[in-house]
Specification:
- With 92 residues, the protein is mainly beta.
- It is 0% helix and 53% strand.
- The protein is built from no helices and 5 strands.
- Strands 1-2-3-5-4 form a 5-stranded mixed beta barrel.
- Strand 1 and strand 2 form a beta hairpin.
- The mean pLDDT is 91.
């Protein structure tokens, strides 16, 4: 008798690290993620910033904290990330 194995599709969840720029919304934080990019022609390295809205159920992340966010299913029109953990707390 043959055994049939079924491979379940596992999704790769992206993780980003950024700084909380706003925590004024209920259960939502805004995280700024910076990345360094090299110019294709001139070779200069410059910084590109992008803001992501992340779901923070318990309101643990505060403004200025360095946090990790994980990609999840869409919770709102522009909220597709989940607050995972605080890496470094801001100096108050």
């Amino acid at each position: 008798m043959e055994q049939i194995t079924v491979n379940k599709k596992t999704s790769v969840k992206r993780k980003l690290i950024g700084i909380v720029t706003s925590d004024k919304m209920i259960k939502t934080i805004t995280v700024r993620v910076d990345r360094a990019v090299r110019h294709p022609k001139y070779g200069k390295i410059y910084t590109i910033s992008k803001k992501y809205k992340a779901h923070d159920e318990h309101g643990k992340a505060k403004m200025g904290d360095t946090v990790e966010i994980v990609e999840i299913r869409p919770l709102a029109k522009d909220k597709k990330w989940l607050y995972s953990k605080t890496i470094k707390q801001a100096i108050q």
